[in-house]
Every structure is written in C-alpha cells, then in structure tokens.
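## Example pair
The file below holds two records. Each record gives the amino-acid sequence first, followed by its structure token line.
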Amino acid sequence: MVEPTLETEKVMAPNVNAIEEQENPVPFLEEEIECPRCHDSMTLCSDFDNLYYVCEECDFCLYTIKKAAL
C-alpha cells in the first residue's frame, strides 16, 4: 500500500503578513523609559503575553495595552 504524501507548498499558501510580523520587531516600544514616579529608568520586561515596564528603584510597574488586530 502506498501512503499519500502532501507537499506544503501545494496545500497551503504562505501567509506573507504573518512572516513579516515575525521578522519586524515592534518599532514603538523603547527598551527603557523614565519612571513617572521617581524619574529613574524603567526597563521593558515581559511575561508570557504581557509587556510591561518596571522601575527597580521604586518598584513601580507600568503595563502596556495590546491593540486589537484588524
């Protein structure tokens, strides 16, 4: 018995937008920003799916908000 084989190029068209999103980092997020509380620098950190800034001096956290996908 011969098993059928599928070639991914013929079955699924590549999603160009998804590939471009993976290659292009988010341009508007800074690695460090000024803390609004103590004016020290805040560092960009991440959890599984959340990005936030944390100040090591005063322990202030500033979470980012995701934009809805269009």
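Second record, same layout:
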Amino acid sequence: MPVMRVQRHSSSWADKLNMRIITLMLVIVLILLQFKLWLGEGGYTEVNRLEARVEAQRQQNDQLLQRNAELQAEVEDLRDRLDAVEERARNELGLIKPDEKFYQVVPPPPHNDKNGDNGEGR
C-alpha cells in the first residue's frame, strides 16, 4: 500500500509579510467603513439628527392641526349664527346697532394729594 506523504509548507518571510499586508489592508477597510457608518453621509449621527427634526416637525404639525380645527369651528360658528357675527363686531370693532346709544363710563382719576390731606373731613 502506498504511503502518502504530507508536505509541510514552510512559510517564508515573504509569505508572512504578504499575510500581514493583507491583514493590515482589511483592518484599514474595516476602519473606513466604520467611520462612514458612524460619521459619514447617511450615517448614524445624521440619522439621529434627522429623526429629531422629524419629531419636531410632527409636534409643529399637531399644533397647527389643532389651530386649524379651532379656526374651522369658529368659521362654521360665524356662518351658522348671526349672533356670533354681531358679538365679534361689538367686542372687536366697537360697532353698535343704528337704534342703540353708546355710553362710555370713565372712572375718575386717582386723587393726588400733595399736602397729605386725603380729602376727609371736608
């Protein structure tokens, strides 16, 4: 029966150098990929920043939707009720009906007494 001999491959210093160069190149590629992942365009940092902006925009949109709903309710109220239109005209514009009289009550100015006399006993 024939005997198979296994040859031992004795690596020379050139083979070891080649392996070290390949390993070093792979490590450099890995570092560059990690750099792009964490700090590059479309990386982790940018994604977090964009997620924060999206959340802020959502909150602003919610506030605007609420404001729009309030304004829509007010518009519908003004369309449906003449009383609401009249109330706004009176309060905001100071309007009165043609057959009404407007009386403005002005409070008296505060009493300024320089002599220490407060007006009591007169």
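Notes on the second record: The first helix runs from residue 13 to 39. The chain has a mean pLDDT of 82.
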